[in-house]
Design a protein that fits this description.
The chain is mainly alpha-helical and 491 residues long. It is built from 18 helices and two strands. β1 and β2 form a beta hairpin. The longest helix is centred in the first third of the chain and has 36 residues. 55% of the residues are buried.
Length: 491
């Protein structure tokens, strides 16, 4: 293209990267089951154990079931587009790489910077939630941890109170160590946790269903199923269902992280679509069942708590199962952190390989074959955030960042179908351009449904990223260098 800002990375170079082997390449160790469990590991976590109840209590009531269906549809359309790209371009980097091949370098940078927001800040937020669950769990069994240190100080005349969550810091440090050791070890760790998580979710579904059947589907807290709007946008009614969909969308974040591991899949052209779509389908079914049963058992007004599923279990009278659910929540949140940090380090790796970030970010460990420096630096940064940032911060920002990535991936599939119609696509998104258009429409609707402050914070984050791009990346970009060599008169 004549404008280097929108120069695209050639498909030939991407496919060459995908076929690389040797000590400077990532280790191909993941099969289809590993990829599905990576997806489930990222998806089933804070969403099902925390956000389900809180979104019902604040925005949608029992109609949170519809919110999950809407969010699942947005993910389904985007997931079909991700599956085509992941099988066609099986390279680490996810939406960043796909945008580079179709929409150009500037858009790719925006998406890469956006994914940093999603994965790094999302992992920090989940780490704080994990810390809170651990303390509650230990308190239930009669143990306690030392109180978190605090400090008060003044900045620009404003008093600040900081709480140092050392548990959040330590759990991120431990997961970072697992990621440095190797992708296969990380995947095996996630697989074990996923088995526990699914077992816990199935236990809740079985106990809740058995209780309701025994009592002739009583209690019934589905009246009204759609609480009337309070007069404020997003507070119940249909606007509340949309706001709820935008919030519970956080619960689906993770299936896109599967695509960041494409360069570590043994047979990515076959296994990537299976991993992406398989994990998405399984988790959507579980979310709908859990949210429906939970709001049937417990009045939605009582679900504004850190552990709504535990409240649901107690409503069945099976108090022994609360121990299991709390363990499942701890395991679920741990695997979400692992996959988010995995995705973050692979996006950094890809951007560094393209010259858009510093060279150290793409260094591969000679023994473990992982981007170890990136994992360590990102892990340390996220651990600091987890220690200092409260749980309520950045959950909607994580959602809005992901939704923006979904929009651009859907557009990218449509553009590539028109610009390269004869490419061999191992997986083809059906009904193009209808499916990509629907993906754009659903994702954009959910972005608009989120709070104005969330949209403003996203804009500020993108401005910071553009400053880095125009001060460093434009001078080191490999694609721009090739563009200058091909166009000597170009500035």
């Amino acid at each position: 293209m004549s404008n280097p800002l929108f120069a695209t990375k050639s498909l030939d170079s991407l496919l060459h990267e995908a076929s690389e082997t040797g000590e400077h390449s990532l280790r191909r160790a993941l099969g289809s089951i590993n990829l599905v469990t990576l997806g489930i590991g990222a998806i089933i976590g804070a969403g099902i154990f925390v956000i389900t109840g809180q979104a019902a209590a604040q925005f949608a009531g029992p109609a949170i079931v519809i919110s999950f269906v809407l969010a699942g549809l947005a993910c389904a359309f985007a997931g079909l587009c991700y599956a085509e790209f992941a099988s066609l371009i099986p390279v680490a980097g996810s939406a960043y790489t796909y945008s580079y091949a179709t929409l150009g370098e500037l858009v790719a940078w925006i998406i890469g910077w956006d994914l940093i927001l999603e994965y790094a800040f999302g992992a920090a937020t989940v780490a704080v939630g994990w810390s809170g669950h651990l303390r509650a769990f230990l308190k239930d069994i009669g143990w306690s941890l030392p109180a978190m240190p605090t400090s008060d100080f003044t900045v620009f005349g404003r008093s600040l109170h900081l709480t140092y969550d050392y548990i959040g810091f330590l759990v991120i440090a431990a997961i970072t160590a697992i990621l440095v050791v190797g992708i296969k070890e990380s995947a095996d760790f996630t697989t074990g946790i996923v088995i526990l998580k699914i077992a816990v979710v199935l236990v809740f579904i079985a106990l809740a269903t058995a209780f309701l059947l025994k009592h002739h589907w009583q209690p019934n807290h589905w009246h009204p199923f759609l609480p009337p709007n309070t007069g404020e946008r997003g507070q119940f009614g249909w606007s509340g269902v949309l706001r709820g969909a935008g919030v519970v969308f956080f619960a689906y974040i993770g299936f896109d992280a599967v695509s960041t591991a494409a360069q570590e899949a043994r047979n990515p052209k076959r296994d990537m679509p299976f991993g992406i779509l398989g994990s998405l389908v399984i988790c959507t079914i579980l979310y709908i069942l859990v949210s429906g049963l939970l709001t049937r058992l417990v009045p939605y007004t009582q679900l504004m708590v850190p552990d709504p599923v535990v409240i649901g279990i107690r409503a069945t009278g099976q108090h022994w199962a609360t121990f299991l659910v709390e363990l499942g929540a701890l395991a679920g949140l741990a695997s979400v952190m692992l996959v988010m940090l995995l995705g973050q380090s692979r996006v950094f790796y890809s951007m560094s390989r393209d010259g858009l970030l510093w060279p150290w970010a793409s260094k591969i460990h000679a023994r473990f074959r992982t981007p170890y420096l990136t994992s360590i630096v990102v892990g340390f940064f996220v651990a600091i955030l987890a220690m200092l940032v409260p749980l309520s911060v950045l959950d909607e920002m994580t959602s809005v960042g992901t939704l923006l990535a979904f929009v651009l991936v859907c557009i990218g599939v449509w553009i590539l179908r028109r610009s390269h119609p004869h490419l061999n696509r191992p997986f083809r998104t059906p009904l193009v351009p209808l499916v990509p258009i629907l993906g754009v429409v659903f994702s954009t609707t959910l972005i608009v449904s989120l709070s104005y402050w969330t949209q403003l914070r996203l804009l500020v984050w993108l401005i910071i990223g553009l400053v880095i791009y125009f001060t460093y990346s434009v001078r080191h970009s490999h694609v721009r260098r090739l563009h200058r060599e091909a166009n000597p008169l170009a500035k």
